[in-house]
Amino acid sequence: MNKRMWMKAGAALAALLPLLASAQGMLKGLDRGMTGPRAQVLVLGTVHLSGLPAGLPPEALQGVLDRLAAFRPDIVTIEALTGEECDLAARHPTRHGMDYCGSTDVAQAATGLAVPAALAEVDRALAAWPASPTPAQRRHLAALFLAANDRASALVQWLQLPEAERRPGDGLDEALVQMLGQLGTRNNESFMIGSRLAARLGLQRVHAVDNHTGDHIVIADEQAFEREVSGAWAAGKPAMEERQKQVKALSAAADLLPLYRYVNEPGYLQALAEINVAAALRAPAPHGYPQIWVGGWETRNLRMVANIRETFRERPGARVLSIVGASHKPWFDAWLGQLQGVDLIDAAVVLK
């Protein structure tokens, strides 16, 4: 390309840049002066509690739950797959696998319902849900949730039953009762924070919003993929070492509120984003697998954010709490903050 052609190309690009900037800003302010209340969305970054020693006492999370309860969410979302996606994975195992989904065989044997039928029954039950449900209704809905592969929501119903009513009946057999008892003691933020908070607030369910349909990467050489992606993350690891020591120390405390304050700090979240994505994008990799992994990561996060939006699509002005692994929070905050009629709530302020 000669000098004259370069000049023409430069002039064309200079003319295009303002148009691109204008297009990027077109959606800003569309909700200015909107009618009715704005949605309030709080993203709580969390460590995965399964990595802590077994038998984590519920009181360790009491400070966190107290502050989240003060936010008064109408909707709670968790990082788990929906029954629909688990059913999809079961029907297309070679493409999606079943790595993230529990079995519903026991619940299907007790209720006679496969996942699709159970999902439909859950919808019907919630549509006619009374203001003061009976214990029998709660047991029945818990059984339906288990058959629909929504264990966290089943636990929401179970926790709202008086102790004397936590027994078999109305679709729950002894095996399902034992399962619910075990869920209540499992080190899992979906149960220990999501389900317990929803039950405390009198909500009927939590909403699973995770998604893995978009991060199924076609890999020609799995060993090379593992080598390149692991190598990219290893290159960024030194920047996180001191922070991970702090996380480990805070995780051993009797009160986990300081831990949650720390993992929701902007500095910690920025460091996570850097090692998770920036290191991958910069990594020299013959096959480009780290960069491909980032494409899958962003697809997953986009679909998760869309799932969160769907939970309050028919509820303008809802107060929404989204509980998700801290590495997702920067993407959630960035994209949820661009939605119309939505105000993002600072987790640091809520946890103060």
Strand percentage lies at: 5-15%
Mean pLDDT: 92
Count of alpha and pi helical runs: 17
- The number of E-state strands comes to 5
Number of folding domains?
Answer: 2
Question: Judging from the principal axes of the Cα atoms, what is the shape?
Answer: globular
| Secondary structure: helix percent | 55-70%
Rg over C-alpha atoms, rounded to the nearest angstrom: 23 Å
SSE ordering: HEHEHHHHHHHHEHHHHHEHEH
Task: Please give the largest β-sheet.
Answer: 5 strands, parallel
Alpha carbon gap, first and last residue = 59 Å
Task: Characterise this structure.
- This is DUF5694 domain-containing protein.
- This protein is an alpha/beta fold and 352 residues long.
- It has two domains: 83-208, no CATH class; 222-350, no CATH class.
- 56% of the residues lie in helices and 7% in strands.
- It has a five-stranded parallel β-sheet with strand order 3-2-4-1-5, with helices on both faces.
- α5 (105-111) packs across α7 (135-147), α7 (135-147) packs antiparallel against α8 and α15 (289-311) packs across α16.
- The radius of gyration is 23 Å and the shape is globular.
